[in-house]
Write a structure and sequence with these properties.
The protein is an all-alpha fold and about 140 residues long. It is about 85% helix and about 0% strand.
């Protein structure tokens, strides 16, 4: 019967012990690294989620700015149209009273022409070219009252 050694283990025993220690160390290292990888992955996912939320907010703000700019442009365009209309009405009002004042100086024709002139005066009054007083004065001149 072979004799057993007492004391230090033999070569095979030492290799077995080393393999167990190395395997345990590898397993612990893998668990530690895996935990770090999971933590890093969750941090990356949180950062991506936050970046997405910020990008959505930026997109919403940009859309609001674009809408405000479009509304401002429409308001500016409407103001320009209103100004042009006001200027055209002012020019028309300045030209029309001179023509309306000059017309009564001529002798009033009889009959149908008087009715046509009254209609023209009424149209000018409705357009705002003649005031109520100017209309009354022209009407009185036409009718000879």
């Amino acid at each position: 019967m072979p004799r057993r050694r007492v004391g230090r283990p033999g070569l095979v025993g030492t290799m077995a012990r080393t393999a167990v220690i190395a395997g345990t160390a590898t397993a612990v290292h893998g668990a530690m690294t895996g935990g770090k990888k999971q933590a890093a992955a969750s941090q990356q996912q949180a950062a991506t989620s936050q970046d997405t939320a910020q990008q959505e907010q930026i997109d919403q703000m940009q859309a609001q700015l674009d809408q405000a700019a479009a509304q401002q442009a429409a308001a500016d365009q409407q103001a320009a149209v209103d100004k042009a209309v006001a200027e055209a009405l002012a020019q028309q009002a300045a030209a029309a009273p001179a023509a309306a004042v000059a017309a009564p100086a001529a002798p009033a024709p009889a009959g149908t022409d008087t009715v046509a002139q009254l209609k023209e005066l009424a149209a000018l009054k409705e357009q705002g070219v003649l005031t109520e007083e100017e209309f009354a004065a022209q009407k009185a001149t036409l009718l000879g009252s």
